[in-house]
């Protein structure tokens, strides 16, 4: 839609108070059907107006008064390319609002790795779901099948011959292992469960 079309449409016929023909303002809502809410500098409430440019919440914009219609004609500086809910990753620790004034950010996922959503996996089925552990202690069912050496102490037992079915040492005794025990191994501590990683600052745009 051209500037002339906006003026001819009569979409904004409400007279405005005296003001310079142009003003700066801050976008308060995402554009919808070519209309955006802007808080003009010096105002506390947002004003609905047409826009001829792409803009996002928090962008500082130039508005021009043409007749009774005020329109957004440009974005001041570099507009923030991230919508509310988007993530921004950086090696710079500075809050992204210093780069995109008027935006609000919060640290996201501190100390956690990011995983793509898989709606078919209960562990990864939705954004924001968390899980996993930094260290893990094995349970008995998680241990691999294994064996241990046995310490034995020799002993003797007297056995009575029973029709030649038992063979002893010739003197009526039979050696047998006694006081059997396995050797202890391990400490029961948790093991490191971390994948190879690299750290970045992760921010989520909240406004």
Low-pLDDT segments, ≥5 res: 157-168
What structural category arises from helix and sheet content? mainly beta
Mean pLDDT score, rounded?
Answer: 78
Number of helices: 1
Shape assignment:
rod-shaped
Run of helices and strands: HEEEEEEEEEEEE
Largest sheet: 5 strands, mixed, barrel
Instruction: Please give the order of strands in the largest beta sheet.
Output: 1-2-3-5-4
Distance between the termini: 28 Å
Number of spatially distinct domains: 3
Structure description:
The protein has about 210 residues and is mainly β. It folds into three domains: about 5-75, OB fold (Dihydrolipoamide Acetyltransferase, E2P) (Beta Barrel), CATH 2.40.50; about 80-150 and about 185-205, no CATH class; about 150-180, no CATH class. Helix content is about 5%, strand content about 30%. The protein is built from one helix and twelve strands, in the order αββββββββββββ. It has one helix at about 5-10; strands at about 20-25, 35-40, 45-50, 60-65, 70-75, 85-90, 105, 135, 150-160, 175-180, 190, 200-205. A five-stranded mixed beta barrel has the order 1-2-3-5-4. The longest helix is centred in the N-terminal third of the chain and has 7 residues, at about 5-10.
Gist of the model:
The chain is built from 1 helix and 12 strands; from the N terminus they run αββββββββββββ. By secondary structure, it is mainly beta.
What order do the helices and strands come in, and which of them pair?
Layout: H1 3-9, E1 22-27, E2 35-40, E3 47-51, E4 60-66, E5 69-75, E6 87-90, E7 105-107, E8 135-136, E9 150-158, E10 173-182, E11 191-192, E12 201-205
């Amino acid at each position: 839609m051209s500037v002339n079309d906006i003026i001819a449409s009569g979409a904004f016929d409400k007279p405005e108070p005296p003001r310079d023909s142009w003003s700066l303002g801050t976008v308060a809502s995402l554009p919808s059907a070519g209309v955006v809410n802007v808080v003009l500098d010096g105002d506390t409430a947002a004003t609905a107006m047409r826009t001829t440019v792409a803009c996002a919440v928090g962008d500082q914009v130039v508005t021009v008064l043409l007749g009774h219609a005020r329109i957004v004609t440009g974005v001041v500086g570099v507009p923030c390319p991230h919508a509310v809910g988007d993530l921004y990753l950086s090696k710079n620790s500075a809050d992204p609002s210093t780069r995109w004034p008027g935006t609000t950010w919060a640290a996201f996922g501190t100390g956690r790795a990011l995983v793509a959503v898989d709606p078919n996996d209960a562990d990864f089925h939705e954004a924001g779901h968390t899980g996993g552990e930094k260290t893990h202690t094995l349970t008995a069912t998680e241990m691999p099948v294994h064996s241990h050496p046995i310490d034995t102490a020799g002993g003797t037992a007297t056995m009575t011959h029973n029709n030649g079915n038992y063979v002893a040492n010739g003197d009526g005794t039979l050696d047998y292992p006694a006081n059997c025990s396995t050797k202890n191994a391990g400490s029961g501590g948790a093991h490191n469960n971390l994948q190879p990683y690299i750290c970045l600052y992760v921010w989520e745009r909240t406004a």
